[in-house]
Amino acid sequence: MIASSDSIGAPVATDGAIHLGWPVTATGLMLGLAIVLITIRLLRGPSLADRVIALDLLGTVTAAAIGLYAVARDEPVYLYVAMAIALLLFVGTVAFAYYIERGPRPAPAASPEDAEAGS
User: Where is average pLDDT lowest: 46-60, 63-77, 80-94, 96-110?
Assistant: First the structure.
């Protein structure tokens, strides 16, 4: 039963539980808008780095949405899923940064033995 509201206007139940109606809805709408804008950046590019960063950000927003779901449903087990996704995103970002730093490997030069074997 909702009896009053706290200082920011979120309704507080008499049993001590906080009902997060409009804050969860507003956050969900903002995350949805972010997903739409990130998807546009992912599709338009223009470079590979832009697309990889957009994909990383899309994963981060997805982890945030899972965290929001965990808070809204009072299911903390979903926070472990969000943390696992964030960890995988971090590893992927580090791998991409390593690839950018080193650059693609050049094709190996053909040795004289390979040239003789091919003819």
Answer: 96-110
CATH code for residues 7-102: 1.10.287
Q: What is the DSSP string of 55-118?
A: HHHHHHHHHHHHHHHHHHHT-THHHHHHHHHHHHHHHHHHHHHHHHHH-PPPPPPPPHHHHHHH
Residues 6+ positions from 18 with CB-CB distance below 8 Å = 6, 10, 11, 12
Q: Is the dihedral of CA 32, 38, 43, 48 positive or negative?
A: negative
Residue of higher predicted confidence among 22 and 38: 38
Note whether 20 and 71 are within 8 A (CB).
yes
Of 66, 58, 65, the closest CA to residue 93 belongs to 58
The CA-based angle 104-109-110, given to 5 degrees, is 140
| Predicted model pTM | 0.68
